[in-house]
Write a structure and sequence with these properties.
28% helix, Annexin V, domain 1, 27% strand, PH-domain like
Length: 346
């Protein structure tokens, strides 16, 4: 790291230095190499340092709280830095109430399924009922949707949603995936919702898997997609032409949509392990026709072959790597149940 906060006594990377500059009342930043350092500032850095800051400012981070990585969106990194140093949420647990209480309600902007407009909707998260609900009207008695915590995932998708605070929530209904796209103008508010959902998932999994350690459960609280993007696909008989679709690889579910912001997948493909008869191949069977994009992928399942075409060789490489990752991983007992229930829509 080439930057340092000389008021906190920590070394930071370039991208985090910009966030630290935005909270000057807490953190004042200098370049390690380019700026002049006073003797007292050097001594302060020497007597503090990142380990000491972590011990103090991260002493009470809840297990479920999402710790961002360098590849995460700006919002998650900014709110982590603000929560840690500005609000000191991980020193004083009472400041964690917005995401640790087990109940949360408020208004979020939700994208309409048919018209694509974002409208204000009331959301209620209740751990006791194990659900996230939203209501079309403030005075509505019945929720428009009930999303079970058991099958819920949330992932920040600012580029796709077109808002820096955009959050995509997916849940299962009749064993098919449903998407909702939401945001809040206040960055803290939407990150609190995200961590409240993770907290609810954490407590649900603690009950469902009583012997599991926190380290086993935390990776299951929310998932980023293995890969997303456009490919072309053809139908089960492979006689009709290829059509361009938006694909999302979520764990073992490969879903395809006409538009990236569709509420429902047009279809889903389960990708099991090689032990169960799944294989990923570069290219197409010899007689394949009708594709515009040149770089083919064939997924062989116990029931049939799926053919996909990628526009570039690098796209093909990335998709094959994502599929191969799923195929190489042995299936868990609960995944056999998912495979058995899987209703593929051709």
């Amino acid at each position: 790291p080439d930057w340092a906060s000389y008021t906190l006594g920590v070394f930071i990377c370039l991208s985090c230095s910009g966030i630290h500059r935005n909270i000057p009342q807490v953190s004042k930043v200098k370049s390690v190499r380019l700026d002049a350092w006073e003797e007292a500032q050097v001594e302060f850095m020497a007597s503090h340092g990142n380990d000491a800051a972590r011990a103090r400012f991260e002493s009470k981070v809840p297990s479920f709280y999402y710790r961002p990585t360098p590849s995460d969106c700006q919002l998650l990194r900014e709110q982590w830095i603000r929560a840690k140093y500005e609000r000191q949420e991980f020193i004083y647990p009472e400041k964690q109430e917005p995401y640790s209480a087990g109940y949360r309600e408020g208004f979020l902007w939700k994208r309409g399924r048919d018209n694509g407009q974002f409208l204000s909707r009331k959301f209620v998260l209740t751990e006791r009922e194990g659900a996230l609900k939203y209501f079309n009207r403030n005075d509505a008695k019945e929720p428009k949707a009930v999303m079970k915590i058991e099958h819920l995932n949330a992932t920040f998708q600012p580029a796709k949603i077109g808002h820096p605070h955009g959050l995509q929530v997916t849940y299962l209904k009749d064993n098919s995936t449903r998407n909702i796209f939401i945001y809040h103008e206040d960055g803290k508010e939407i990150v609190d919702w995200f961590n409240a959902l993770r907290a609810a998932r954490f407590h649900y999994l603690q009950v469902a898997f009583p012997g599991a350690s926190d380290a086993d459960l935390v990776p299951k609280l929310s998932r980023n997609y293995l890969k997303e993007g456009y490919m072309e696909k053809t139908g089960p008989k492979q006689t009709e032409g290829f059509r361009k679709r938006w694909f999302t690889m979520d764990d073992r579910r490969l879903m395809y949509f006409k538009d990236p912001l569709d509420a429902f997948a047009r279809g889903e493909v389960f990708i099991g392990s090689k032990e169960s008869g799944y294989t990923v191949l570069h290219g197409f069977p010899p007689s394949t026709q009708g594709h515009h994009w040149p770089h083919g992928i064939t997924i062989v399942t116990p029931d049939r072959k799926f053919l996909f075409a990628c526009e570039t060789e690098s796209d093909q490489r990335e998709w094959v790597a994502a599929f191969q990752k799923a195929v190489d991983r042995p299936m868990l007992p609960q995944e056999y149940a998912v495979e058995a229930h899987f209703k593929h829509k051709p």
